[in-house]
Design goal:
Elements (H helix, E strand, L loop, with lengths): L4 E4 L3 H12 L4 E4 L4 H6 L5 E2 L1 H9 L4 H6 L1 E3 L2 E5 L2 E5 L1 H5 L3 E3 L2 H14 L4 E2 L4 E5 L4 E6 L2 E6 L2 E4 L17 E16 L8 E4 L6 E7 L2 E8 L10 H12 L12 E15 L2 E2 L2 E3 L5 E2 L7 H22 L3 H28 L7 H16 L1 H12 L8
Parallel strand pairs: 1-2, 1-12, 2-8, 5-14, 12-19
Antiparallel strand pairs: 3-7, 4-7, 5-6, 9-10, 10-11, 13-16, 13-17, 14-15, 15-16, 17-20, 18-19
The structure holds flavin-adenine dinucleotide and 3,4-dihydroxybenzoic acid.
């Protein structure tokens, strides 16, 4: 098989890249390891920055999103039993969208297939040659090859994209956090109109949502925690304790539809390009979930990449492709810092260091009492503008 751009991975990064290229008249083939059903059900992110939504609008992918999303103009920070609202939209003029990642993936898959694909499911890539832009993959029980002008490694943290780059050609920066998140999706109406980030002596908790009938909730747990040790009643008891407050708030509960544990980590590979291989999204960087940034970063990467590829085909100039990694990494490190900072401010450290706890509370009190501090937080949380030329 031959195409212009081989895209490995049909997550938000790969699917959106295929769409942006198609709009510019550039052909691609997307290879996805999992089945369509699997990727359309996988519960992941839910918070979209306005920049992400504006881009989806511009490229005709946001019709269902506008019908079904929830729009938020603030969030709450809960500590010492009191909730403090940060009015994100008043401070920045920008709003947040709540729309499940797997719903966005459904929209992207539908758009891609309606336009004629090609998108191969159950087609895991096993090797990428960055020099020849060739991808070896399995499909229908056979080993096949896809050759292209360029390859986009959009295959997430556990894909083959990163491993195709020789170890001496990249530097990987890693930071592990001493906790994980236990996340549930529950058939229960949200108990608040906005997200609640709680910094509690028992550990961090987050109240989020998907629809007026579905709540998404997270608990900080130990990194080696096992789901088997968390029967539903224990989860609800812990959530009630960590989201408790002095104003009569009651957490609605209901059947748990999905449960999972995700480690928090920071990871960046530099550069994000090697020869004809370009890494985008989680294959190049992971941020801890606290800032709700991973999906939005993946979108920013492919915006830059699509423009650079377009310029290269139209003019033969490779400035955009040559600058791809540096352009993306500037945003990646800004977001990496913000996500690390927010994580550090809100989670209970395992040794319960009382000094660290007081520093956290001092930071939180400052954030909710200083307009300057709240504005800086809000500007990062709602998302900085997408890079120029995207
Ligand atoms: P992925 O979504 O991981 O897609 C990669 C695709 O490649 C997958 O479909 C995979 O099956 C496929 N693949 C892997 N290997 C191969 C192979 N060898 N061959 C072919 N295909 C392959 N981000 C936010 O912005 N906001 C949030 O609120 C948020 N909350 C989160 C909550 C949780 C619990 C988790 C786990 C993540 C959250 N994130 C959030 C992060 C966000 O989900 C990811 O950053 C996002 O999925 C990255 O998209 P991607 O396309 O780069 O990678
Ligand atoms: C959600 C996930 C996050 O990581 C976050 O910071 C806020 C909300 C969510 O899944 O809704």
């Amino acid at each position: 098989m031959r195409t212009q751009v081989a895209i490995v991975g049909a997550g938000p990064a790969g699917l959106l890249l295929a769409h942006l290229l198609r709009l510019r008249g550039i052909e691609s083939v997307v290879l996805e390891r999992q089945s369509r059903d699997h990727i359309e059900r996988r519960i992941r992110a839910g918070v979209l920055e306005q920049g992400t939504v504006d881009l989806l609008d511009e490229v005709g992918l946001a019709d269902r999103l506008h019908r079904e999303r929830l729009v938020h103009s603030g969030l709450e920070l809960l500590f010492d039993g009191t909730g403090h609202r940060i009015p994100l939209t008043d401070l920045t003029g920008r709003e947040l969208t709540i729309y499940a990642q797997h719903e966005l993936v459904k929209d992207l898959v539908a758009a891609h297939l309606a336009a004629g694909g090609p998108l191969l499911f159950e087609a895991p890539a096993s090797a990428i040659d960055p020099a020849t832009a060739t991808v070896r993959f399995q499909h229908d029980g056979r080993t096949r090859e896809l050759t292209a002008d360029l390859v986009a490694g959009c295959d997430g943290f556990h894909g083959v994209g990163r491993t195709a780059v020789p170890a001496d050609a990249v530097t990987a920066y890693d930071h592990e956090y001493p906790f994980s998140w236990l996340g549930i999706l529950a058939e229960a109406p949200p108990s608040s109109d906005e997200l609640i980030y709680s910094c509690h002596d028992r550990g961090f908790a987050l109240h989020s949502m998907r629809t007026p009938r579905i709540t998404r909730l997270y608990l900080q747990v130990a990194p080696d925690e096992r789901l088997d040790d968390w029967p539903d009643e224990r989860i609800w008891t812990e959530l009630r304790a960590r989201l408790a407050r002095d104003d009569g708030f009651e957490l609605a509960d209901g059947p748990i539809l999905d449960k999972g544990i995700t480690a928090l980590r920071s990871h960046v590979v530099e550069p994000m390009r090697y020869d004809k291989l370009f890494l985008a999204g989680d294959s190049a960087h992971i941020v801890p979930a606290t800032g709700a940034k991973g999906l939005n970063l993946a979108v920013a990467d492919v915006c830059v990449l699509a423009s650079a590829i377009d310029e290269w085909y139209r003019t033969g100039r490779s400035d955009g492709l040559d600058g791809y990694s540096d352009t993306c990494l500037r945003r990646v490190w800004r977001v990496q810092h913000f996500s690390w900072w927010m994580t550090t401010m809100l989670h209970l450290l395992p040794d319960g260091d009382p000094f660290a706890r007081r520093v956290q509370l001092a930071q939180l009190r400052y954030l909710v009492s200083s307009t300057a501090a709240a504005t800086s937080f809000a500007e990062n949380y709602v998302g900085l503008p997408l890079p120029k030329g995207a």
